[in-house]
Design brief:
Layout: E1 4-9, H1 21-26, H2 89-100, H3 104-116, H4 121-141, H5 147-161, E2 175-180, H6 188-199, E3 203-208, H7 213-223, E4 227-231, H8 238-250, E5 255-258, H9 267-271, E6 276-277, H10 281-289, H11 302-305, H12 313-319, H13 321-335, H14 344-367, H15 370-386, H16 395-404, H17 409-422
Parallel strand pairs: 2-3, 2-4, 4-5, 5-6
Helix pairs in contact: 2-3, 2-4, 3-5, 4-5, 4-6, 6-10, 7-8, 12-14, 13-14, 13-16, 14-15, 14-17, 15-17, 16-17
């Protein structure tokens, strides 16, 4: 809702944020005027609702963290970095002020001062730049920063990273490919991982945002890395992430994954058969330093990891998604006459919001995980509430989707869970 320019803040203007005046006047009718808030979470921390202040490098960390030690925190929260440098606090405040002012030169100066004061480049990267990027996402979610402001802040952070000192790869350390899965454009978290690995002596091929799986596989055949690190911030990318994981493994290359898409405790990394997971960049680098990952499993199909896909619900709902959005929009118009007063832009945003709901519904179907859908809805409700829009404006769309999908038992279960999650809020 993950960083959005990448990593930690995202274009989360809101999936249901724009429940405009018409919706507000219509009260319950308001149907879903939410802004793209939850999916477009633009860059590095958009989906961070109530997170710990100190995390930021994590969002993308494709590493193999302890699968048996789940981290519990709010939806979209970033786990606390394992060993931050407390001296960074002073520079966090200064860097935040520079980013807030849109002053790239001042931000570069803060980074230079921190290095001159003896902070290690990794600490500057993760405990200053990463923490500030995390704060950008929190400020957006709290409606204290505009989408334009968080985009500008993310762009500054991305450029400031380039001023950190480069390091030659250490002989014998190994080669790593770091990339975002196809259609995942939140790239900053992946870059934090790539830069951390570079600082620790790895030879890194950083491929950036939304890398099509076929092109990723072509790169692996040409470069033969020791491991692939895949990043994804949004759960809606899980089907594509699964495709990328199995394709990389079919080349004999082990895969580490990270980012909010895989769950705060890495549960979806395990579900999709990744060879490793980590909650943040340092943990990723530590795991790689500890020794090679085990060789991946032989080539296999998605249904081997996810037997529930055999019921075809995901396939049928996903294929009908465009029609579902159109039909739901038309039913909303008929049921709530207030929509006749919407502007063209409001109508377009409403359609986008409905598409986000359906996207998260299908992602939850793919993983057979209620929390993917309910977390999305409750996060969106929080974003709406901060913006003065009642959370109940989400409910009509769920009701109309249930009418159309009544023949799909797992889908009905998800929609029931969504309504139950929103119930205390209206």
């Amino acid at each position: 809702m993950t960083t959005d320019t990448n990593g930690t803040t995202t274009r989360a203007d809101g999936t249901m944020t724009r429940a405009d005046d018409a919706a507000a006047r219509a009260g319950d009718d308001a149907t879903t005027r939410a802004d793209n808030a939850t999916t477009r979470t633009d860059d590095t921390t958009t989906r961070t609702n109530g997170a710990t202040a100190r995390a930021a490098d994590d969002a993308t960390a494709p590493a193999n963290g302890p699968y048996d030690e789940p981290v519990r925190h709010h939806v979209g929260a970033r786990p606390v970095a394992p060993y931050p440098d407390d001296r960074a606090d002073e520079y966090v405040d200064r860097h935040w002020a520079a980013v807030l002012a849109g002053d790239e030169h001042a931000a570069v100066g803060v980074v230079g001062d921190a290095l001159d004061a003896g902070l290690e480049p990794e600490a500057v990267l993760l405990d200053v730049i990463g923490v500030v990027q995390h704060k950008v996402g929190l400020e957006w979610a709290a409606n204290r920063m505009s989408v334009a402001g968080e985009h500008a802040a993310t762009a500054i952070n991305d450029r400031v990273i380039a001023t950190l000192p480069a390091r030659r790869p250490t002989a014998g350390r190994g080669r790593v490919t770091v990339a975002c899965v196809d259609q995942e454009w939140h790239a900053l978290p992946a870059r934090l991982v790539a830069e951390t690995l570079r600082l620790r002596g790895w030879e890194v091929d950083y491929l950036g945002a939304q890398v099509p799986t076929a092109h990723l596989i072509g790169h692996l055949h040409r470069t033969a890395p020791d491991v692939v690190c895949l990043s994804s911030s949004l759960p809606t990318r899980l089907p594509l992430a699964h495709t990328a994981i199995t394709a990389c493994q079919a080349t004999g290359t082990p895969v580490m994954v990270g980012g909010l898409a895989f769950g705060a405790d890495g549960r979806y990394a395990r579900l999709l058969g990744a060879d490793a997971w980590a909650p943040e960049a340092r943990t990723a680098a530590d795991r790689l330093a500890a020794g090679p990952l085990p060789p991946p499993r032989p080539p296999h199909q998605a249904v081997d990891d996810l037997p529930h896909l055999a019921d075809q619900e995901y396939t049928m709902v996903a294929k009908s998604s465009p029609q579902l959005v159109r039909d739901t929009f038309q039913r909303l118009e008929r049921r709530f006459p207030a929509m006749s007063g919407y502007s063209d832009e409001q109508r377009e945003r409403t359609a986008e919001d409905l598409a986000h709901i359906v996207d998260f519904l299908t992602a939850a179907l793919y993983a057979d995980a209620d929390e993917i859908f309910t977390d999305f809805l409750t996060w969106t409700a929080d974003v709406l509430t901060v913006r003065g829009v009642p959370a109940r404006s989400l409910l009509p769309a769920l009701d109309l989707l249930q009418e159309q999908l009544r023949d799909f038992p797992r889908t009905r279960r998800l929609l029931d869970a969504g309504r139950a999650a929103l119930d205390p809020r209206h």
